[in-house]
Write a structure and sequence with these properties.
CATH topology of one domain: Alpha-Beta Plaits
Oligomer: single chain
CATH class of one domain: Alpha Beta
CATH architecture of one domain: 2-Layer Sandwich
Number of helices: 13
Shape: globular
Order of helices and strands: HHHHHHHEEHHEEEEHEEHHH
Distance between the termini: 57 Å
Mean pLDDT: 83
Number of strands: 8
Length: 388
């Protein structure tokens, strides 16, 4: 940083930003791996998720005070870290959030620098931080519940019962804070894409994923499995939609990892999904197709098999297939489809547990109202199976 310019200005000289960009880009690639029947494939992917999060450490440091514009560069480094995406596996996400928490706190203490660099990525970081707080409190409650279930109710102490009740209420309180955000709904982008091109605009979603059996084991895909999955993804949309939106699906075994598959979805952008404001905030057609696989609800595929995504990107593309720019609303919509129903269903589970213990949750009925309300739009995020 002392000997190279931060940003490229002279073609004859490299820049710090270029080096970091290459490092971050490589960190998102799935490493080539060979697995046999004795390998713990899930553990290998879990470790890769952690390694991909660790790369952000390169951005979470204080630059030397001797360099020019040190405050601005510190802010730029942090914002670049916020833009960097890592897999949604909790171990990677938790690691990333922990790295960014302290630098963000320091930066927020200097608002004159901070305000210039506030972006959608900062909002997304804060949203994910809140979600994982909800996730942690739920898992804590579940751990207590499972431990208490191993003991006869008559033998449970008052303290143990009270501990479970307090954990349940904390879970519900945090979850409701996330669900009831009116001015700033969870993971909704404030940036709208309006195409000025006269040419047809397309949308693409690229994902690297593993097939996970209900037992938790990984399924090793072959050509037959890929063909079946491709057909199942097509069938998650009606024939009319497939035709009108020119939906195409491609599934292939990853060249880098025999246990991973590469999924590419592509469709025509239309008003409300790729063109103009996206009012439903559910990610549109491509999000709906991928969510069916993520939730293990593909009608014409092996029951209960889910797609565990390790890399996900969405793009606007031209008619000839060249990528125009990121379609963030698709990725965020997919996350909303997967996370918000999960939070609500967990709340139902916790609320029912409180009722059974004789401590009913006052806002139990509000959960039902949240799902059915046209204002929240949550009902669009639920699959038919989840609603049932």
């Amino acid at each position: 940083m002392e000997y190279l310019p931060f940003s490229q200005g002279d073609d004859s000289k490299g820049s710090f930003e270029e080096i970091i960009e290459r490092l971050l880009s490589r960190s998102r690639e799935t490493k080539a791996g060979k697995f046999d029947e004795t390998s713990d494939v899930v553990e290998q992917h879990r470790l890769q998720s952690l390694q991909k999060a660790l790369v952000v450490q390169w951005l979470c440091f204080t630059p030397p005070s001797t360099i020019t514009d040190v405050k601005d560069i510190s802010a730029k480094l942090l914002m670049r870290a916020l833009i960097h995406r890592v897999p949604a596996m909790p171990i990677g996400a938790h690691e990333l959030l922990s790295f960014l928490a302290e630098p963000l706190k320091q930066l927020s203490e200097t608002p004159d620098t901070f305000e210039d660099y506030v972006s959608e990525n900062l909002k997304e970081f804060q949203d994910w931080s809140e979600y994982y707080s909800c996730d942690a409190t739920y898992r804590n409650w579940l751990k207590i519940e499972l431990a208490n279930a191993e003991v006869s109710p008559d033998e449970l102490s008052v303290e143990e019962k009270q501990r479970a009740i307090m954990a349940a209420k904390e879970t519900l309180d945090l979850s409701f804070l996330l669900l009831l955000r009116e001015r700033n709904p969870w993971l909704i982008s404030r940036v709208e894409h309006i195409s000025e091109s006269m040419e047809p605009l397309f949308l693409e979603l690229h994902a690297t994923a593993m097939l996970r059996l209900p037992s938790g084991e990984s399924m090793c895909p072959d050509a037959t499995v890929c063909a079946a999955l491709m057909s199942a993804l097509y069938s998650s949309a009606t024939e009319e939609v497939v035709s009108e939106r020119q939906l195409t699906v491609n599934v292939a075994i990853s060249s880098k990892d025999s246990y991973s598959i590469e999924v590419i979805l592509r469709c025509l952008a239309v008003e409300g999904d790729g063109i103009g404001p996206h009012i439903l905030n559910d990610g549109g057609l491509l999000s709906a197709v991928m969510a069916a696989g993520f939730k293990g609800e593909l009608a014409r595929f092996q029951a209960g098999v889910t797609l565990e995504i390790s890399r996900l990107d969405a793009w606007f593309s031209s008619k000839d297939g060249s990528l125009e720019g990121p379609a963030t609303y698709i990725v965020q919509g997919l996350c909303r489809r997967c996370c918000i129903p999960e939070v609500i269903l967990r709340c139902m589970q916790v609320s029912v547990s409180l009722m059974e213990s004789g401590n009913p949750f006052e806002s139990h009925d509000q959960l039902i109202e949240l799902v059915s309300s046209s204002e929240t739009g949550f009902i669009n995020l639920f699959s038919q199976q989840q609603l049932q």
